[in-house]
Amino acid sequence: EEVNEVEECGPLPIQNLEQVGISASDVKKLNEAGYYTVESVAYTPRKQLLTIKGFSDTKVDKVLHEAAKLVPMGFTTASDYHAKRLELTCITTGSTELDKLLGGRGIETGSITELFGEFRTGKSQICHTLAVTCQLDEASGGAAGKCLYIDTEGTFRPERLVEIAERYGLDANEVLDNVAYARAFNSDHQTALLSQASMLMTESRFSMLIVDSATALYRTDYSGRGELSARQMHLARFLRTLLRLADEFGIAVVITNQVVAQVDGGMATFVADPKKPIGGNIIAHASTTRLSLRKGRGETRVCKIYDSPCLPEAEAVFAITGQGIADAKD
Questions:
Q1: 324 and 128 in contact (C-beta within 8 Å)?
Q2: Could you please report the per-residue DSSP string of 261-321?
């Protein structure tokens, strides 16, 4: 008899640990602590697992040992990794020029893409368009998955999704049902929502997580230089969790960021664009691809690759239309 081995896609449910000798009560404790997959346990530092009630040193060592057996965490050849990267799904932005700038296919899954710019540069409009395009099938430039949308500024508008859905010939009600929306009210709540997001992702297939904006609440929750260190540590933990979700579930993470005007000394007058993204080096190192947005003429906007491990510095012009992001008309 031929045995058809079906390779499971996506992360392993935390219940799989029961098959390798971890007791059901310990698995339940992990689940209650916000660990819903074997990967989430394997990627977590040992000292963090020790904070779970009833978990001793030996128990944590055993759990990590068993989790490491199920999740490949060792070395692999560059050719294997290259083959894996070739299979990555990309999500269209709605503009072919912008997709070309991003390597030809759009926003990459499994990594963090940061959009920053002044107000009215199209950050939220790109987010709204991506919330719809991620639901398209792969042949149409999507990833056939749902979208999680964390809104910190109160700028999410479902009616925009309806307009964009019409452009792609999708059922508007279905598109809205496939977007899980949450409004974050403070920086702690923003981080707590990621634990809920992790639970939702284990229940059904999501392909996109949007945080608009990742830094707005930090600007008001922490003030002055005295709280700068605490703010950056909190922000670093939030971004680390985002990166873990991207690794664990293979989703595309898109965050927006605000800018600050540089007013330190006379040098600002000689700099062409004296505005820089906030969050400092913490957010700069956490984001895989950083895109800078600025206003163009009329409805057009200009996107520039600010930082990327594989894309050259270049620019693309796109337009904000009634049906989302599209190519600029000449």
A1: yes
A2: E--SSGGGGTSS--EEESSHHHHHHH-SEEEEEEE-STTEEEEEEEE-SSPPS-EEEEEEE
Strands 107-108 and 90-91: antiparallel
- Of residues 180, 103, 194, the one with CA closest to residue 148: 180
Distance of CA 189 to the CA centre of its chain: 17
Kindly tell me if the per-residue pLDDT of 63 is higher than 90: yes
CA distance 315 to 273: 15
pTM of the prediction? 0.91
Rounded to whole angstroms, the Cα distance separating 116 from 294 reads 9
**β-pairing verdict for 275-277 and 107-108:** unpaired
Distance CA 255, CA 243 (A): 11
SS (H, E, C) 45-87: CHHHHCCCCCCCHHHHHHHHHHHHHHCCCCCCCHHHHHHHHHC
Q: In 144-227, which ranges are continuous DSSP H helix?
A: 158-167, 172-177, 187-203, 216-221
Residue pair 153/213 in contact by the 8 Å Cβ criterion: yes
Q: What is the pLDDT of residue 263?
A: 73
- How far, in Å, CA of 166 to CA of 79, rounded? 41
Tell me if 22 sits within 8 A of 54, measured CB to CB. Answer: no
End-to-end CA distance of the chain: 63
State the residue for tokens 């049906």. Answer: 323
- pLDDT tens track for 145-183: 999 999 999 999 999 999 999 999 999 999 999 999 999
Q: CB neighbours (10 Å) of residue 277?
A: 21
H/E run at residue 131: helix 123-133
